[in-house]
């Protein structure tokens, strides 16, 4: 069946090959590049393949080679509101957001998909490394490049209007195919870091947005060990940049309290948690389990997978890990899997250390 497909083309190799595959499959494909910055010079430069100033030109050249119509959509206002401002607000609240996940949720698969459907398109095609089978998301065959974690926020309706042509191949195969197709982005480096922080200095970006607000760094007993210029510069599990001096044994950030502007540190063992509460659950692969059910869970992008039992209660996801995990930060996503199939996702709102009360905020 021939579909009208809107191919989101970032300017990188993955989205270019995905658009080419969709066109080769006989679909009626139109390419679109999302302009996400009101001031492109404020974003990273250099051929990185995501949101840089060169990417619109690279995407247009790829569309010309493929032979499909191409347009640029100005999404700068939506991106600033839904991704950048949310990123700042989450850090101000003592949480650690994932802006790429938020961009997929609110921009690529909400604002863009809504506009695409209104214009008569049947599906949005992207270059994400994930498989779509029987209406459910599965991990890519290239586990190192798998992006199911950042797409697990999609609901069933959004998935039904999505197309992911690259989930059955490795990144090396994608680059080789791009070269065979004559796409100039075949050797373009992958994107890393946060596109709207030009110099990669997240702490500096947050300081400019939120200002300096000195506060204490304390141990678990409340003893003051040092000070900081803003709690928003820290995340759970962080070790570097504490500046506590050689007299203090190695410490990790255990929690961030935005109201009192206090950062609590302790040993690595004190980072261990085995209970997680997460809010705003989305169940794309199964119905919400009312009783504890066995899954595996991934707690951060490219993080390890943990065995667990999970269920939904009072609109929240409750997770009990089989073994304690460390560095679990509020604001990150907890994504549940059955094998390599995404079952559901929610945003971590509280954790509890083994044998202790939950730490929330």
Automatic annotation (TrEMBL):
<feature type="site" description="Interaction with tRNA">
    <location>
        <position position="128"/>
    </location>
</feature>
<keyword id="KW-0067">ATP-binding</keyword>
<feature type="binding site">
    <location>
        <position position="34"/>
    </location>
    <ligand>
        <name>ATP</name>
    </ligand>
</feature>
<dbReference type="GO" id="GO:0005524">
    <property type="term" value="F:ATP binding"/>
</dbReference>
<dbReference type="GO" id="GO:0002143">
    <property type="term" value="P:tRNA wobble position uridine thiolation"/>
</dbReference>
<dbReference type="InterPro" id="IPR046885">
    <property type="entry name" value="MnmA-like_C"/>
</dbReference>
<dbReference type="InterPro" id="IPR014729">
    <property type="entry name" value="Rossmann-like_a/b/a_fold"/>
</dbReference>
<dbReference type="InterPro" id="IPR004506">
    <property type="entry name" value="MnmA-like"/>
</dbReference>
<keyword id="KW-0820">tRNA-binding</keyword>
<dbReference type="InterPro" id="IPR023382">
    <property type="entry name" value="MnmA-like_central_sf"/>
</dbReference>
<feature type="active site" description="Cysteine persulfide intermediate">
    <location>
        <position position="195"/>
    </location>
</feature>
<feature type="site" description="Interaction with tRNA">
    <location>
        <position position="332"/>
    </location>
</feature>
<keyword id="KW-0819">tRNA processing</keyword>
<keyword id="KW-1015">Disulfide bond</keyword>
<keyword id="KW-0489">Methyltransferase</keyword>
<comment type="function">
    <text>Catalyzes the 2-thiolation of uridine at the wobble position (U34) of tRNA, leading to the formation of s(2)U34.</text>
</comment>
<keyword id="KW-0808">Transferase</keyword>
<dbReference type="Pfam" id="PF20259">
    <property type="entry name" value="tRNA_Me_trans_M"/>
</dbReference>
<feature type="region of interest" description="Interaction with tRNA">
    <location>
        <begin position="145"/>
        <end position="147"/>
    </location>
</feature>
<dbReference type="Pfam" id="PF20258">
    <property type="entry name" value="tRNA_Me_trans_C"/>
</dbReference>
<keyword id="KW-0963">Cytoplasm</keyword>
<feature type="binding site">
    <location>
        <begin position="8"/>
        <end position="15"/>
    </location>
    <ligand>
        <name>ATP</name>
    </ligand>
</feature>
<feature type="domain" description="tRNA-specific 2-thiouridylase MnmA-like central">
    <location>
        <begin position="205"/>
        <end position="266"/>
    </location>
</feature>
<feature type="domain" description="tRNA-specific 2-thiouridylase MnmA-like C-terminal">
    <location>
        <begin position="274"/>
        <end position="348"/>
    </location>
</feature>
<protein>
    <recommendedName>
        <fullName>tRNA-specific 2-thiouridylase MnmA</fullName>
        <ecNumber>2.8.1.13</ecNumber>
    </recommendedName>
</protein>
<dbReference type="GO" id="GO:0000049">
    <property type="term" value="F:tRNA binding"/>
</dbReference>
<keyword id="KW-0694">RNA-binding</keyword>
<dbReference type="GO" id="GO:0103016">
    <property type="term" value="F:tRNA-uridine 2-sulfurtransferase activity"/>
</dbReference>
<dbReference type="GO" id="GO:0032259">
    <property type="term" value="P:methylation"/>
</dbReference>
<dbReference type="Pfam" id="PF03054">
    <property type="entry name" value="tRNA_Me_trans"/>
</dbReference>
<feature type="active site" description="Nucleophile">
    <location>
        <position position="103"/>
    </location>
</feature>
<keyword id="KW-0547">Nucleotide-binding</keyword>
<dbReference type="InterPro" id="IPR046884">
    <property type="entry name" value="MnmA-like_central"/>
</dbReference>
<feature type="binding site">
    <location>
        <position position="127"/>
    </location>
    <ligand>
        <name>ATP</name>
    </ligand>
</feature>
<dbReference type="GO" id="GO:0008168">
    <property type="term" value="F:methyltransferase activity"/>
</dbReference>
<dbReference type="GO" id="GO:0005737">
    <property type="term" value="C:cytoplasm"/>
</dbReference>
<comment type="similarity">
    <text>Belongs to the MnmA/TRMU family.</text>
</comment>
């Amino acid at each position: 069946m021939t579909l009208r497909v809107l191919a989101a083309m970032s300017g990188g190799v993955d989205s270019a090959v995905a658009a080419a595959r969709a066109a080769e499959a006989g679909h009626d494909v139109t390419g679109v590049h999302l302009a996400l910055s009101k001031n492109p010079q404020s974003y990273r430069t250099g051929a990185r393949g995501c949101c840089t100033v060169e990417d619109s030109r690279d995407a247009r050249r790829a569309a010309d080679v493929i032979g499909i119509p191409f347009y640029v959509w100005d999404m700068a206002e939506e991106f600033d509101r839904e991704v950048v401002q949310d990123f700042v607000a989450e850090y101000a609240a003592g949480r650690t957001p994932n802006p790429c996940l938020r961009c997929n949720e609110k921009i690529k698969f909400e604002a863009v998909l809504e506009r695409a459907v209104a214009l008569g398109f049947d599906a949005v095609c992207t270059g994400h490394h994930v498989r779509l089978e029987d209406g459910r998301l599965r991990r890519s065959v290239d586990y190192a490049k798998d992006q199911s974690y950042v797409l697990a926020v999609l609901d069933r309706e959004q998935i039904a209007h999505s197309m992911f042509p690259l989930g059955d191949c490795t990144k090396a195969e994608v680059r080789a195919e791009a070269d065979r197709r004559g796409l100039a982005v075949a050797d373009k480096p992958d994107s890393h870091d946060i596109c709207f922080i030009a110099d990669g200095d997240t702490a500096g970006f947050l300081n400019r947005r939120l200002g300096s607000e000195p506060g204490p760094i304390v141990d678990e007993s409340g003893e003051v060990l040092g000070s900081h210029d803003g709690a928003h510069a820290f995340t759970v599990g962080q070790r570097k940049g504490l500046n506590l001096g050689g007299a203090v044994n190695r410490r990790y950030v255990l929690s961030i309290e935005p109201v009192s502007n206090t950062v609590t540190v302790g040993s690595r063992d004190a980072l261990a948690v085995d209970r997680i509460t997460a809010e705003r659950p989305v169940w794309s692969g199964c119905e919400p389990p009312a009783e504890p059910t066995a899954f595996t869970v991934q707690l951060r992008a490219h993080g390890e997978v943990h065995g667990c039992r999970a269920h939904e209660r009072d609109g929240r996801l409750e997770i009990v890990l089989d073994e304690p995990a460390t560095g679990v930060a509020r604001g990150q996503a907890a994504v549940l899997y059955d094998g390599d199939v995404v079952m559901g996702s929610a945003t971590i709102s509280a954790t509890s250390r083994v044998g202790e009360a939950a730490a929330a905020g």
